Amino acid sequence: MFYSQHSCPSGTMSYTIRAGDTFYQLSISHGVSLDAMLAANPGVNPDRLSIGQVVCIPTGPGPGPPPTGACPTLRIGSRGASVTRLQQLLRNEGYDPGPIDGIFGSRTQTAVMAFQRDSHIPVDGIVGVQTWTALGVNCGVTPPSHTCPAGTTPYTIRAGDSFYLLSIRFNTTVGAIVAANPGVNPNALQIGQIVCIPR
Question: Which of 41, 84, 108, 179 shows the smallest number of beta carbons within 10 Å?
Fold first, then answer.
């Protein structure tokens, strides 16, 4: 059902919420920042979107998420859209950060530490590039110059990956992955590192 009384200000377009939509996903698919989405929808609770609800999406040459600052360092006491994004990502991964309110409190810190522990990254309750990357965020810190040879495809290492598990997942052999990645130590893979997987 359309809420026809809802009109969007100039510089934005109306969008009708569908099943599964979140502000975070809409910001990515429309190339706008999460901050811009929140600013264009005052009074809208991003954690309580309903199917058929009309929201406003910024249009025009709005900058996408900047490569620096896409993964700000957050800790207890931090506030804002980046914290809201963090809380939503934690909830998507099955960790309860408490209310998604953009305030990094003790419940959010507890959820962060549980996620860090399960992801085998340093458990400090501080969200930096390593934690963002483990949550699936591209922090823009991987050098774009990394190209994989013909017959292979790039893959970004996530928590728990090993060459053995990747060989099973991609139906290849450990030897073939090692050969495609000269200079990569298979015993020291880093979350966010790009490796080449034979097709």
Answer: 179
Amino acid at 134: A
Rounded-to-integer distance, Cα 186 and Cα 130, Å: 19
Multiple choice CATH, 152-198, 1.10.510.10, 3.10.350.10, 3.30.70.2690, 3.40.605.10: 3.10.350.10
Question: Residues in the chain, how many?
Answer: 199
Given the structure tokens 């979107």, which residue do they identify?
49
CB contact at 8 A, 134 and 160: no
pTM: 0.41
Side chain identity at residue 192, one-letter code: G
* Lowest mean pLDDT, pick from 6-10, 15-19, 46-50, 70-74: 6-10
Closest CA to 141 of 63, 73, 61, 62: 73
pLDDT tens by residue, 89-138: 999 899 999 999 999 999 999 999 999 999 888 889 999 888 988 888 87
Mean confidence (pLDDT) of the chain: 83
